[in-house]
Amino acid sequence: MALKALDIYKLLPKKNCKECGDPTCLTFAMKLAGGKADVELCPYLSDEAKSVLGASTRPPIRLVKIGVGVRSFKVGEEFVLYRHEKTFYHPPGIVFRIPDTMTEEAIVAVTKRVQDEVFTRVGSDLRFNGIAIENVSGSPDIFARAVATVENVKAHLPPVLISKDPAALKAALVHCGTYRPLLHAASQENFREMCALAKQHGCPLVIRSGTLDGLVQLVKDCTAEGVTDLVMDLAPASLGDFLRRSTGIRQLAITRAVPDLGYPVYLNAAATGQQDAAVALGIVKYASVIVTDPLSPGPTKAALTLRQNIYTDPQKPIQMNPGLYRVGTPDKDAPVLMTVNFSLTFFTLQGYLESSRVPCFMLIVDTEGLSVLTAVAAGKLNETLVRDSIKKFAVENEVTHRKLIIPGYASPLSGRIEDATGWKVLVGPRDAAEIGEFLHEEWK
Amino acid sequence: MGYDCNFGWTSTIGNVILGATKADGGTRRISYTIGGGTTLPFIEKRTDAPVPLIAFEICDFPGFWSTIVTDYCGDLVNHPGEWAKAADASYGADLIRLYLNSTRQRNFSDIASLGTVVEQVLGASTLPLIIEGSNEPKIDSEVFQKCGEVAQGERLLLGTAEAGKYRSIAAAALAYNHSIIAQSPIDINLAKQMNILLKEIGVQRDHIVIDPYTGALGYGFEYSYSAMERIRFSALKGDIDLAMPMICSAADTLTIKEVREAEPEVKNEMAIQWEFATGIAAAAAGAEIICVRHPGTIPLLKKAFADMKKTVVPAGVS
User: Fold this and answer.
1) Residue of A137, B80, B196, B252 with fewest CB within 10 Å of its CB?
2) Domains and CATH numbers, chain B
């Protein structure tokens, strides 16, 4: 069972020595309670206290780093079954699969795509994360050559090496052994050789089994061999099988009912026969490394967007900086549209304004990231804020007219805004999708 | 398997019946019972748990519809009956959802024409039907009355009730034994409140489908996703006022920037994939009716749902 911060505090030395990096023992205790710190950081703990704390304060799912450098990614260290309970911390790495039988040109092309492709939305750059090279040929030489081809692009992407044959992995590791590749996969038959390779190169290792018992056994075997950076391939027989066991593992791990299942999950979407569905399902249901064949434009954007959505912290509304934003090149007669600084509201409205082709100003006021509806209800969006924002962002210098378009949901405020600002208020539509039509009809 | 998860659920999602066959006084060839869930979606132990239904959305005024769909479906869109027939026979939908969006024209008053449209659709396809009425308080009462009456005995799902407007829909549903879509703006408490309002005026629990409102993927979908998870969670934990099945309709999907501004050669693919990813995620969160507007999304979702239902591990996987 998880301990509360105060229970943990009782076991600490209470010296406030700061040697753990925290200012006080109490703040360290709070971090431990949240699974955000390691008991080993405290030099003064008795072995007994360590053993009590160790089991209950280490993160229920181990953090595993894959790759090195700027494109490396970390997975695991999750705490909840539902994102709304807290948040999901580490988005799954989506890696493109390359069979080692692919031509050199094609391998280079896929690698360059993962290196360069960026999809920017809501102010963030979304990318795929790495390259998985699969030993389809069965030949260690061909496998090693394919891995060398990827590495020669110098994209420094996290590699995943897929082969049942330790000899093939060994040959490939010559080319990328120092880049923390993820090795796939240890089974009951080969785990000793796999563990030896993982230890020699300091890389994370995937274990693979079609049952939870099998995974638990492999975790015990591999950790006994000294490999602790593990990732679990559930070898799912269907999407439903993945869903059921992935959910079960998450639940058993976060409740610490089966600590040996506390490792991130690997999903080979390409092997499910329903790749696009598997990618989407993996994103929402606890996969941490998703292997897929290179995706076409539709699934690319849908998958990256879904991952961005699901891994958005539900505790913090995403905010825009308040200010006056331009759409196109507005002149002194251009309309001014006021709305809130909830980024989703901003980007949705901006998208529709762009396609309306009416150059205009967006006056973004600070509602601390609340949407129009909630900001009106909470009183955060009010006439004083609007008046002060008009002044602060010098809107009166930008346009000669004094007309302000406000969101439909802010209509109860229209009279008060007119009184406070001296501007004439036009109540716009509730739905941003109708703003183009509104401007064309109402803005003369 | 040696490990069993205990989520501590104490309750079950209530059932709602959609459509009535001849035996039940209707003319549909099939009726569906949704709900009945006892745990998280797709991890039921019983093998006869229903998979989510796919509703294809059509309308009676295609001028207000996405051009991606109207271009793709062609002249069909001008004939709601023919369009419904295609949704059933060629696209493979489980349900038809008819939007009477002609009522959204300014000063619309031709209520009789709506009855004709509903009759056409009921005659053209024998799938159970969802009808979306007007969005205008002045005519709501007449519109829902007309729909309810024309489709008497068919066990429609009527939409959409919201906190500010539910009496007309409820009246029509109660008078003609139809069910209701109860929508709230992405908030579990408001969803519950909406259901209580309906209960207070006499709508039975087994006649309510919750619409937690689905924001398009990339435009607030995560809020809807979590609202669905929370509703399902609370229902399974025993909150009877939330223990109804859910419907997901990400109606804005085809108008968002990524889809609207996609290159012509990938526009259909983008629309389909956006609806598809939304449908998969919503189903995993607990939605039992997934609404789509692009015909191309239906076979993909069907295939995926069938595989998501399969949980048996064949021997030999180790």
Assistant:
1) B196
2) 52-309 (3.20.20.20)
